[in-house]
Each structure stands twice: as structure tokens, then as C-alpha cells.
Design goal:
Blueprint (H helix, E strand, L loop, with lengths): L1 H21 L21 H15 L15 E10 L4 E8 L7 H11 L12 E10 L5 E3 L25
């Protein structure tokens, strides 16, 4: 009996995961823009706000409006190098999602398709933009830089015994 339940549970998980994975096979088309907005940043760390705004403008229909759900489909860290012309020179994954790795090529395709980005601040040949992508199961997302936050799990619904922050 135990083997049958495990087998059924496995198929149930596959049935839930496959629809979510399928939607990440193709990245959405970015909205057309005449030209990227000029950066207001004077140094590299401030550029991340302009880069995140650029992504939000290009993929406005995919931005999750309001607080993110308490359980996200994926969280990915991405380091993107933008050259002096606003083109993507390099994309590096700095934090892979624990399970939903299908979002990684999806994110990379969106970053590349959104080019050109605002040109880096004056005097810089390139800028490195570090960002956390927070993605829900429906394929909507927020970038940590501009995130509106995340809903809390209602009291009594937290089944995770280990608290990541060490608070009990």
C-alpha cells in the first residue's frame, strides 16, 4: 500500500509541476520602446534601480501587482553585465532556484530581449547589475530592487519546522 501512495503522490506532483514548467519554455516578448530611458545613476550601485525599471517597462504585463504570495515558484539571483552601449555583455546565475530551474533560461531570454538598457553612468565602460528575480507560479514576477514585498503565511499555517532566520 505504501508503494502505491508514493507512486500516486509522485504523479500528482508531476501533474502540478508540468503546467508550471511549460509556461517557462518561452519568454514573453518585451514591449517595444523607442529608446531606453536615460539613467539617473551617478555610480554603479544606483544603476540597478534604472535597470529594474527598464525590465518593468518592457514586461509590464508580467509584473506581479501588489504583495507577492507567501510561497513563490522560484527565486533566482542574476548578475548581468551591461556595456557602454546598454547591451548585455554577460549573464551569470548567482543563485539557482531550489527546484524550479526551468525559470533560468526564461530569465536569461527576457534579460537579453529587453536590451538595450540605459547606458551606464558617465565614465563607466560597463556596469554590473545584481538582481533577485521573485517569480510566482503563474509566471508573474517582481525584481527585489522594486519589490512590493511578500504576503506572510497566516498564523497556524506554517508547517516549516526550521526558521531560516533562527527566530523561534
Amino acid at each position: 500500500m505504501r508503494g502505491t501512495r508514493g507512486w500516486l503522490a509522485g504523479w500528482l506532483l508531476i501533474g502540478i509541476a508540468l503546467p508550471a514548467a511549460a509556461q517557462f519554455e518561452r519568454a514573453p516578448e518585451p514591449r517595444p520602446m523607442a529608446a531606453p530611458l536615460a539613467t539617473m545613476a551617478t555610480e554603479e550601485p544606483a544603476y540597478r534601480i534604472d535597470a529594474a525599471r527598464h525590465i518593468y517597462l518592457r514586461y509590464a504585463d508580467r509584473i506581479h501587482d501588489g504583495l507577492l504570495p507567501p510561497l513563490l515558484h522560484a527565486i533566482a539571483g542574476v548578475r548581468t553585465t551591461i556595456d557602454a552601449a546598454g547591451q548585455v555583455r554577460r549573464i551569470e546565475i548567482t543563485r539557482e532556484p531550489a527546484v524550479a530551474r526551468e525559470v533560468l533560461p526564461w530569465i536569461e531570454r527576457m534579460i537579453r530581449a529587453a536590451a538595450p538598457y540605459p547606458r551606464p553612468p558617465a565614465g563607466l565602460d560597463e556596469v554590473v547589475w545584481n538582481e533577485l528575480w521573485l517569480i510566482d507560479r503563474g509566471g508573474s514576477f517582481q525584481l527585489h530592487t522594486l519589490s512590493e514585498g511578500q504576503q506572510q503565511v497566516p498564523a497556524g499555517d506554517d508547517t516549516d519546522e526550521d526558521d531560516e532566520d533562527g527566530d523561534e
